[in-house]
Write a structure and sequence with these properties.
This protein is of the alpha/beta class and 446 residues long. It has 3 domains: 172 residues, 3-Layer(aba) Sandwich (Rossmann fold), CATH 3.40.50; 128 residues, no CATH class; 80 residues, Orthogonal Bundle (Arc Repressor Mutant, subunit A). The protein is built from 15 helices and 14 strands. A 5-stranded parallel β-sheet has the order 4-5-6-1-7. Helix 12 packs across helix 13. The termini are far apart. About 2% of the residues have low confidence.
Length: 446
């Protein structure tokens, strides 16, 4: 029988012990990178498809050195596209700056990934059902992020508290977020009132609408410029275009950018109005959904009557609410930018306003059971155009309005043969003369 040779044990090479801490850190980094990649895929698609037919003046008014910036605006005025275009511009500026400074690879790569300085995120994303805004900010800054653009923030609980923590913790991060008109931001919010800078994004001004329709690039003017030099300014503009040829269509549909879409403008505006009631008022103000019908009825009554005095007793009885609750609901409609309230100087809510206007002339014409008079449209337009940057009040004098406690204004449909004693905005006047100012020219304030 053959003798078997003993089998020698194979030589085993020594292996370095695995460091579980390093592996866990690397795994976490990979998970964080994958999460950012998912957000950037959405970001890139939306930025590439964002449309802003004209450059909004507000983009150049923002101080980008501020680290917490709120863009406040009503539904339908283009807040999301505004954020996306801002993100695109900031990323382009950053790349140009890096090229100018001959940035090294070290500056452009972080943790083995190219630095992406800007990120747009919507809180519609289900990521935020299990993760926090603070988590996102930590990961984004870790990989070199500088500008975080946040949309639909009202859907996130404790948003202001976390914004405060982010502002305190990440000194190189700039956060820009959209805010609905009813979100508490400035004096009403103790978390961020001392650190946030708020800007208002409104619908298209007549100047912006005219630029879009004609391809021209008219600049804006201050109210003082218009009062003092309206004749020469209007003549200069009228040498290039006839504004009154566009003014009626602007009053009808030019305030909301959605008029540019190939959809029914009225249907889109109804969606905006219902969104303002159902989300901006009911959800954010935490009103019982059973009250939605009364809110809608209140708005319908005001649409039928505005501009007009406010008969709270009659309206309260018609919708079945107390006077105090009705006044609160009126304020909610005002806060959500569905209506405007005109008060005497030094008076405000909860006092009854002198007159109620629809927030803009497009909304004023969404009531199909009445034909709105030209003067009603012109008054509504005056308030809409001026009150964004100026204080507009009722006056006990014969004038309709007083602006900034300084300028008494009348509004008229047609020009007078004789000059007026005070500034008068005239609806059907193309070039100014004396104290008679073309009403359309007040649409050049922004």
């Amino acid at each position: 029988m053959e003798k078997l040779e003993p089998i020698n044990n194979p030589v085993v090479e020594s292996v370095e012990p695995v460091n579980p801490v390093v592996d866990e850190r690397e795994l976490l980094r990979l998970q964080q990178a994958a999460m950012l990649d998912a957000f950037f895929r959405i970001h890139d698609f939306l930025v590439d498809h964002a449309s802003m037919p004209i450059r909004r003046l507000l983009m150049d008014e923002i101080n980008w050195d501020d680290r917490l910036i709120a863009i406040k605006g009503g539904r339908g005025v283009g807040k999301t596209d505004f954020l996306l275009v801002c993100a695109k511009e900031k990323e382009t500026e950053w790349k140009e700056q890096m090229e100018k400074e001959h940035a090294s690879k070290r500056q452009l790569i972080k943790y083995g990934r190219p630095v992406r300085p800007c990120l747009y995120v919507s809180f519609n994303d289900f990521y935020f059902t299990e993760h926090t805004l603070l988590d996102l900010a930590a990961v984004f800054t870790k990989f070199g992020g500088r500008y975080l653009f946040l949309d639909q923030l009202f859907k996130y609980p404790n948003w202001s508290r976390e914004l405060k923590r982010i502002h305190s913790k990440y000194k190189d991060l700039h956060v820009v977020f959209c805010a609905t008109p009813v979100m508490p931001i400035d004096e009403e919010n103790t978390d961020i009132k001392d650190i946030v800078k708020t800007y208002n994004l409104r619908g298209f001004s007549f100047r912006e609408y005219l630029n879009r329709q004609t391809g021209l690039r008219f600049r804006s003017y201050t109210l003082e410029d218009i009062i003092q030099h309206h004749a020469s300014i209007s003549r200069e503009i009228c040498e290039r275009v006839h504004p009154l040829n566009y003014f009626k269509s602007y009053l009808d549909h030019g305030y909301y950018p959605s008029y540019l879409e190939s959809k029914s403008f009225e249907a889109e505006l109804l969606k905006v109005m219902n969104g303002q009631l159902e989300v901006d008022v009911l959800m954010i103000k935490q009103i019982d959904v059973a009250c939605l019908h009364k809110l809608r009825k209140l708005l319908y009554i005001l649409m039928q009557e505005a501009p007009s005095a406010l008969n709270i007793s009659s309206i309260s009885e018609e919708i079945g609410l107390s006077r105090a609750t009705t006044m609160n609901y009126v304020k909610y409609l005002k806060d959500s930018r569905l209506i405007n309230l005109l008060y005497p100087e030094n008076k405000s809510f909860p006092m009854k306003p002198t007159r109620v206007y629809m927030h803009n002339t497009n909304l004023a014409q969404m009531i199909f059971t009445r034909e709105i008079a030209p003067m009603d449209l012109y008054e509504t337009y005056f308030y809409m155009a001026v009150h964004g940057a100026h204080k507009v009040n009722a006056t006990e004098r014969n004038a309709m309005f007083i602006v900034d406690s300084q300028y008494y204004f009348d509004v008229k449909e047609k020009a007078s043969m004789r000059d007026t004693i005070r500034p008068t905005a005239v609806g059907e006047l193309e070039t100014g003369r004396g104290n008679q100012i073309p009403l359309w020219l007040l649409g050049f304030l922004y």
